Amino acid sequence: MTSTALYRRFRTLLIANRGEIACRVIRTARAMGLRTVAVYSEADAGAQHVAEADEAMLLGPARARDSYLNIERIIAAARQSGAEAVHPGYGFLSESAEFAQACADAGLVFVGPTPEMITAMGSKSGSKALMEKAGVPLVPGYHGAAQDDATLAAAADKIGFPVLVKASAGGGGRGMRVVRKADELAAAIVSAKREAKAAFGDDTLLIERYVDNPRHIEVQIVGDSHGNLVSLFERECTLQRRHQKVIEEAPSPTLDAAQRETVCAAARRAAGAVNYVGAGTIEFVSDGKDVFFIEMNTRLQVEHPVTELISGVDLVEWQLRVAFGEALPLKQDQLRLNGHAIEARVYAENPAKNFMPSVGQITTWRTPAETDGLRIDAGYRAGDSVSPYYDAMLAKVIAWAPTRQAAIDRLDRGLNDTDVRGVVTNIPFLSALVTHSEVRANAIDTGFIERNLAALTAAPSAPGDLELAAAVAAILRGEDEAAKAEGPSPWRTSGWMPVGRRKRAFLFRRGQGPDHTDHKVELTYGGGASSLTIDGRELAFAWVANGDGIDVSLGDARARIHAVVDGHELYVRTRNGRFELHLVDPFGGESEEAVGEDKIVAPLPGTVVALLAEAGAKLDKGAPILTLEVMKMEQTLRAPFAGTLKAIKCKVGDIVQEGAELAEIEPDAES
């Protein structure tokens, strides 16, 4: 097939992805008058992207390899639906040359680069060889074909520790390990290869010098089939955790105009080395003085919205127009940088528990209106389920403003106005991060989050009078709404009373286990007035619903609060922050059976990928016992105390459910 046949106008587009990016592509495709086809696994039958598309095709079971990574089934779905083109999104098969070739062989337009370009630039090792020829600066390292342990160890010794071991294929921090000492290398290689094989089907590794305290700079490029290639400025993605981006912004607050042109010119040379067609990103690492090429992503990036907001370009539209065979709408000298944009990734994960993924059904989904420079790109809604099979990202909150400080303020407000319940999210962590004084001052590097993790994930302060009043108001509002559906009643708490005044007690619990705290509140109502008694102090109290918020009066103070009640669980947001409370039911038992501390249980559904200790072994506190793969990431379960490993109750390859007992430890006497 000739290159010109790869690009032609089409009317029906299949999106070979799910979640946020599928919804994102559907929006632009529909605006361009295209018919859209979604694909889905059995786990995603009720997902938002399925509902938003004009048509949806079932691929297969929940596991990605049986659905979103199954090339044969996706091609069959395209043929059956009448699709003429395929957009791969990001992740899954987006950087698979095999998939791009399969589309071409089936007569489908692949919305992205050619298989040859993906092969040349998608391999970290291969692309580095190309960059050397193109004069693009590289981090010193090894990216050869020999992959035996001796060769990799010799390369690491030659480079000098610390080194970075990482998968040649793929990205997202998977298959990547920082190794600071020679005796840590062997275990890192085994782990990185296993994770890379599971995530990308390729366990080829490269080793390069690890740049301490680096910054991550990347340049968005787009090329067309007519020989035009432009860079749309740069993004800074320095705020990372476990090599995964958390906050992204554009332009980089680190570069001046001259440095910006230097790095963008290097990116254009890099993409020009393969006459690149489509959207892609050239990634660099900076040690504060020099900038080094690290890899190219031959696809659309998660963080592309910040580039769209500062350039005024719809990158998905440009991708589709390039796939039509059109020339780029703008030349390099016609592109203008406007203002500053910053993005935060909202994940279903628990920062207080080492960012463990959270699964379950979303009971509340509330995001701010997309006005005043705020944009929400989401792939979920209330009622959707977050499964353990895929990446845990729910949405992106993006803010634009004329200046960086104003954009940060706007992003923080957008995060504070985003409420997701039913699963645990990282929203409080994101708010703490973007408002940190050193982040505002741009005094950061890629290790910033890890160094400041304790402060960024610290529990909020104890609820004060306002928060307890907000909790009471939220409960009363819910009862009023329920009562309205049943008709008027003289017995409603906030309604007319036949005589006298009544009292009602609330007990709110913050936290779990032995460290929990209880807060008692007494409501007195009737006779046209209400009051709350908190810690022996009686304060006048009133509330009124105001849209999705509640206006609360307590004593002489008034405040707008937001709250969500989900059964006995309350989420309250006031000017003092976010608070989670549990309404204790004195008649409900409230006791929960807990698994004994000597049991190691699965925190989430997952697959056992490694056993790291044997029954009978003596373990120190924190010693690794086994590794689970959860949501495509490895989680190592460790001994909670020193003791003897009595039993391993699983084997490699087992698929285990949440709460399944995996091992048993007998604590040492002194433990």
Structure in a nutshell:
The protein is an alpha+beta fold and 671 residues long.
CATH homology-level superfamily of the largest domain: ATP-grasp fold, B domain
**Shape field:** globular
Head-to-tail CA distance between termini: 69 Å
The largest sheet has its strands arranged as: 14-13-10-11-12-15-22-20
Domain ATP-grasp: 128-324
Pfam families: Biotin_carb_C, Biotin_carb_N, Biotin_lipoyl, BT_MCC_alpha, CPSase_L_D2
GO molecular function: ATP binding; ligase activity; metal ion binding
Organism: Rhodopseudomonas pentothenatexigens
Which key terms come to mind for this protein?
alpha+beta, metal ion binding, 671 residues, 6 domains, Rossmann fold, biotin, nucleotide-binding, 26% helix, 8-stranded antiparallel β-barrel, Dna Ligase, domain 1, D-amino Acid Aminotransferase, Chain A, domain 1, BC-like_N, 8-stranded antiparallel beta sheet, single chain, Biotin_carboxylation_dom
Describe this structure in words.
This protein folds into six domains: 12-111, Rossmann fold (3-Layer(aba) Sandwich), CATH 3.40.50.20; 125-139 and 214-336, D-amino Acid Aminotransferase, Chain A, domain 1 (2-Layer Sandwich); 140-209, ATP-grasp fold, A domain (Dna Ligase, domain 1); 339-458, ATP-grasp fold, B domain (D-amino Acid Aminotransferase, Chain A, domain 1, 2-Layer Sandwich), CATH 3.30.470; 465-590, Glycoprotein, Type 4 Pilin, CATH 3.30.700; 595-667, RNA polymerase II/Efflux pump adaptor protein, barrel-sandwich hybrid domain (OB fold (Dihydrolipoamide Acetyltransferase, E2P)). It has 671 residues and is an alpha+beta fold. The strands form nine sheets. The protein has an eight-stranded antiparallel beta sheet with strand order 14-13-10-11-12-15-22-20, sandwiched between helices. The termini are far apart. Helix 4 packs antiparallel against helix 5, helix 5 crosses helix 6 and helix 12 packs antiparallel against helix 13. It contains 17 helices and 39 strands. Its cofactor is biotin.
